Amino acid sequence: MAIDLNLQAPSAAGLIWRVTRNDDPTSEAEREEILAAPGFGIHFTDHMVDLCWSEKGGWHRPQVEPYGPIALDPAAAVLHYSQEIFEGLKAYRHADGSIWTFRPDRNAARLQRSARRLALPELPTEYFIESLKQLIAVDGDWVTKKDEESLYLRPFMFAKEAFLGVRAAKKVAFYVIASPAGPYFPTGIAPVDIWLSTNYARAGKGGTGAAKTGGNYASSLLPQAEAYEKGCQQVLFLDGPYLEELGGMNVVLVTRDGRLITPASDSILEGVTVASILQLAKDRGLTVEQRKVTIDEWREGAASGEIVGAFACGTAAVLVPIGRLKSDDFEIVHDGPEATELAMSLRDELTGIQYGRVEDRHGWMLRLDA
Ligand SMILES: *Cc1c(COP(=O)(O)O)cnc(C)c1O
């Protein structure tokens, strides 16, 4: 492995980054083949970011290194007690070739909130953003030129201290890996069917629902499997009578008069996508309500024609209309065009900003390759 001294310069964040180039990178031909049909989360770029934290030394040894397996002590705390958090955002190529990301300060702040809840150290925002820039500096060629496609960035942090006693780890690792992401809906956007989980919860009061942590996903896998069995693609979780969210996406209801309603709860994950979609709606003069919403309100509203549709949003899919909510006892069907048209036009505006086609009025985009 050759250390690239040209890149070993002090960064904006003041850390000295060590860059070790992959001496067996993916060939251009192979990369083009992968980018022609990337799927999601299957292929990974040639490098990764790796930062260490220790109680004594704080954040140290920032580096970019060849993508590959991580050596862990079998007693590493994460393997036993799930002390882990992650983030997800995307790098987009604009028409002039430049590479950008969307509201990374939001992801950095959320990683800090997740860290507090999981008793992990907070990574400063400058280090978070610098780590994305460092990875793009070596793997920028992996950001596709194709519209609606991107490079998915996955920062994550975990307890690597080898210790079986139960307490917050004193040694922690932070990594960023990247994976080319194809169009989420290769055959065009179709409404999804959602299963209402009544026998499982995603999170409880005072739990970890508001943190982006692997454990929340682990506990959603069984209800998700149940949803598949019922012919649905996703699960909606409740907190008693109140709507929470899907396993990895936030939910918005659309009323006949064009109001957008999204659940407020301490146990849902604050999505960057939903916040941005709702901001764009407010910019259009639409009313946005963030408040408690019961499943009965949705059911009765759908029956009376007051609620005309619903959609789910998150970074990976951006926005998906919900065609049906199914449960053991009832079914809500949204097959009218109004809500879907509104949702799709908000989606187009958001992706327009992300891909540089629409003016970035709010200053949401950050350039990663300069
Ligand atoms: C990541 C995530 C979301 C969506 O957040 P975005 O920032 O919009 O990608 C929603 N719910 C859960 C549980 C998540 O983990």
UniProtKB/TrEMBL annotation:
Pathway in which this enzyme or protein is active: Amino-acid biosynthesis; L-leucine biosynthesis; L-leucine from 3-methyl-2-oxobutanoate: step 4/4; Amino-acid biosynthesis; L-isoleucine biosynthesis; L-isoleucine from 2-oxobutanoate: step 4/4; Amino-acid biosynthesis; L-valine biosynthesis; L-valine from pyruvate: step 4/4
SUPFAM superfamilies reported in the protein's UniProt record: D-aminoacid aminotransferase-like PLP-dependent enzymes
Cofactor(s) of this protein: pyridoxal 5'-phosphate
Keyword Phosphoprotein appears in the UniProt entry: no
CDD domains from the UniProt entry: BCAT_beta_family (cd01557)
Domain of life: Bacteria
Pfam family, one: Aminotran_4
Keyword S-adenosyl-L-methionine in annotation: no
Top-level EC class: transferase
E.C. number(s) listed in UniProt: 2.6.1.42
Keywords: Amino-acid biosynthesis, Aminotransferase, Branched-chain amino acid biosynthesis, Pyridoxal phosphate, Transferase
Annotated GO MF terms: branched-chain-amino-acid transaminase activity
Reactions it catalyzes: L-valine + 2-oxoglutarate = 3-methyl-2-oxobutanoate + L-glutamate; L-isoleucine + 2-oxoglutarate = (S)-3-methyl-2-oxopentanoate + L-glutamate; L-leucine + 2-oxoglutarate = 4-methyl-2-oxopentanoate + L-glutamate
InterPro entries, per the entry: Aminotrans_IV, Aminotransferase-like, B_amino_transII, BCAT-like_C, BCAT-like_N, BCAT_family
Chain coiled-coil ranges: none
Family membership noted in the UniProt record: Belongs to the class-IV pyridoxal-phosphate-dependent aminotransferase family.
PANTHER family per record: BRANCHED-CHAIN-AMINO-ACID AMINOTRANSFERASE (PTHR11825:SF44), SUBGROUP IIII AMINOTRANSFERASE (PTHR11825)
NCBIfam families attached to this UniProt entry: ilvE_II, PRK13357.1
Name of this protein: branched-chain-amino-acid transaminase
